[in-house]
Amino acid sequence: MRIVIRNGLSWLDADKKAPTYLNIEGDLIREQTDRLPEGDVVLDAGDGYVIPGFIDIHLHGGGGHDFMEATPEAFRSATEHHLLHGTTALCPTSVSATVESLRAFLNAHRRAMADPDLRVRLLGAHLEGPLLSERRRGAHDLSVVKSAELTAFETVLQEFPLIRRVTAAPEWPGICALASRHVPEGVQFSMGHSEARGEEIDRAVTAGFTSVTHLFNAMSSYGDHLGIKAPGLAEKALMDDRVYVELIGDLVHVPADMFLWAYRNKTAEKMMLVTDALSAAGAPAGTAAIGAGSERMELEIREAAYLKGTETLAGSVVSADQLVRNAVKIGIPFRDAVKMLTETPAKLLGVDRFLGRLDPGMGADIVILDRELQVRHVICRGNLIR
Question: What is the DSSP code (8-state) at residue 68?
Answer without folding.
Answer: G
